[in-house]
Amino acid sequence: MNRTLRYGASCLLVAMLAACASSSPDVIQRSDTQRLSQVQDATVLSVREVTVDGSQSGAGAAVGGVVGAIGGYSGSGVQREAQVLGILAGVAGAAAGNAIERLSTKETALEIILQLKGGERRSIVQAKGSETFAPGDAVIMVTTGGKVRVSKAPKQ
After folding, report:
1. Residue pLDDT, tens place only, 57-72
2. Where are the domains of the chain?
3. Which of 34, 51, 85, 94 is most buried (most C-beta within 10 Å)?
């Protein structure tokens, strides 16, 4: 049973790590390299911290359910009781796996309100990166394949 639980916990950890994709503006996805991006000059109007809710892809619940069911069923006892215990442990494992996935993918981000040179305003939510923004900062808004990120404007 110990080996089964360790294997299940390892599977859960691998699934959780695979689900954690970076949304940092400092990390560029490979698919976005060597693609033409639109760049627009803007000025920061306001910045505030927001929380991006964690994802629930179902992977955490699935792995947690399997691990719980295997762990619950592998105990000794009457066959029917072991099956019921396995089902109950599977449900509990699914709930725990779902909660772990949601908490591990939750992140602090910034909502940045910008004013473009033409007067239009835009709101972008992006993960915190290495740059800090303040009202009045000159920035650029880079759009690549439908994804937008904000960074400081180059010094001229």
Report:
1. 666 556 665 555 566 5
2. 1-22+54-105, 35-53+107-156
3. 94
